[in-house]
Structures are given as C-alpha cells and as structure tokens.
Description:
38% of the residues lie in helices and 17% in strands. By secondary structure, it is of the alpha/beta class. The strands form 2 sheets. Strands 1-2-3-4-5-6-7 form a 7-stranded mixed β-sheet. The chain has a 5-stranded mixed β-sheet with strand order 8-9-10-11-12, with no helix packed on it. A hairpin with a 2-residue loop joins strand 1 and strand 2. The site of one zinc ion has 6 residues, from loops.
Amino acid sequence: MCSKLRIDAVAVVLLAAAGTATASDRPDAADAAYADMPHIAPIGVRIAHYLPVPQNAKGPAIDPAKGYRLQELGKGLYLITDNAYQSMFMVYESGVVVVDAPPGYAAHIVEGIREVTDKPITHLIYSHSHTDHIAGANALGKVPTIIAHAETKRLLARDDDPNRPLPTVTFADRYSLKVGSQVLELSYHGDAHEPGNIFICAPAQQTLMVVDMVFPGWMPWRRFAVAHDVPGYFAQLEEIRKVPFKTLVGGHVARTGTHADVDRQIAFLQDLKAAAAKALGATKPGAGLDAKTASENPWAVFDDYIDRVVIQCVNGLTPKWQSQLAAYDVYIWDQCYAMEQSLRID
Ligand SMILES: [Zn+2]
Ligand SMILES: [Zn+2]
C-alpha cells in the first residue's frame, strides 16, 4: 500500500515536471563543444576506441594456470607480479623477506616463494600504507617483523584495518635491514605519492623499488598516480633518477623499469608542466561566457576558464606524446587538470 501511494506521488511529480519545465531550465550538456576541442575524449565521455598499447609497454606473459609470474632480479631477489601489481621477496640464509603484499595476488606469494625455497617468511616491508599494495599481508601467515616508515604506522593506526597489521619496526630517515648475507636499504625522501612512501634499495642486486611513482612504458595513473603532493612528486622523480639502479620495481604494470623509463616520464612531465603554464598564461577567465553568468556565478567562470586551459594543454602535448606512452589517451585530461591546479595553488 505504501509503495503504491509512493508510485502515484512520483507519477504526479513527473507529470507536473513534464508540463512546466522548459529546455532552458535544465542543466544540459553544452550546445556546442569548445573551440579546438581535442580528438581525445574528455573525462566523462565514453571512449569507443583506445589508442593501441605500444610494444615497449608490454611485459612477459603470465601463466594463466598460475596467476602470477616470478622474475629473478639476481642473488636471491625476486619480483612477483600479476602484471598489474608488483612486489618482491628476498631469500637469505635462514628466511625470506617480503616487500608488499598486493591483495590481488597475495594468495600466490607463498606459492611463488615455495618455487624457490622452503625457508620461513621472517620479515615483511610495507612500501606505503595503501590498501591495494599491502592488504594481502594476512595471506603470508603471521610474520614476526613488519617494517615501515613511522608515517605509514601512523596512517595504518588511523585506518584500523585488520587486513593491514601494524608495523613492529619503524624508522624516520633510513633503515638498513641486514639478514644473513643480504641487505635492503630503506630510505625516506619526503611526501610525494603519500607520506611514508619509501625507497627500498637492494644494493647487491642493483634494484630499486619505489611504488606509485614511475610507470615504465605507461602514462602515470590519473593525476600523477593521485599524488598527495604534486611538487613533491616532481622532486622525488629526480631523486629516483639519481639512484644508480639497474632494475626499477615500480609496483605496477607488466615489466620492470630502467633509467630510460624514468628519463622519459620526467621528460613527459616537464612538457606537461610547460604546456599547462603556457595555457594558463594565454587564457582569459570569463571570455567564453555570457555577461549574466559571468557576473553572478564565479564558479561557472572558473569552470569555463579551466576547461579552456586544459584543452590547450591536451592539444599541446598530443602530437608528441600520444604514441610514446601507453594509455596517453586514458589519462591526459586528468594530468592536465592536476597540473594546472598545482601550478595555480601549490
Ligand atoms: Zn599508493
Ligand atoms: Zn599503486
């Protein structure tokens, strides 16, 4: 009975609305696109055909029966991945150190370790606090020692998530983990992706793991991989560039990275910064609006202004970069919106 009354009431409202509303009362999509609209679909518009993924963004295939891939990084250090996420483990004389446990394949991490050794997992290192990289921790069983940056412990205590057990050991600037003959050097370089996100360096294996910063072969995930601090993100990429690694484990995508990948990402970001700065300088707020809207709706003025800035930014980058980074078309609008915002407010 209640539901019938309710339906009747909704029908009355709909009928009334149909009789009174006019086209101009409704917040419709624009009548016409902006001038110089990019051919790459903006945010919120369905993309019918994505640009092809360049060959150099691809990695070795996953055995579908296993659901994961192991890659030897040298001297007892292994990458384990589902080709979307990446983590590592290091075997030493009496145990195994695991770095990150992405929940997507955490159930396979012990299987991967058992391909190589029967030794127990003695240590787990968290790269940072984000769920998608560490919330598979419980699949490893009870790990005696969990190491992370102090900020990561603070965030995890706040989040109070049983899938992300609290670290038992924390540090502020540097921590050297020496187990048997193996070494991992942990260091903190400030806020960029997230407070507490650390560098994990294996000197003997010439391997550096830093998560959610560099995406070998790919456009960074949207808005600089949702960087907590955009200027910090740009600065920390230069810190990564300085480390003399041979192999970079970025935490994502289907392959490991090299210095060439870091250089290319920085070159893209420098072009992005220049394109957004140029567009901000060349665009006049309010120029695209009628006088009434311009005088009474400052947020509309801003919306129109930023849209025109971002359109110029996208157009400035597309000819050079659309074929160089996989998924350029997926996130270029997001990157331009994040860049113009950072240039204005940071
Ligand atoms: Zn993250
Ligand atoms: Zn990530």
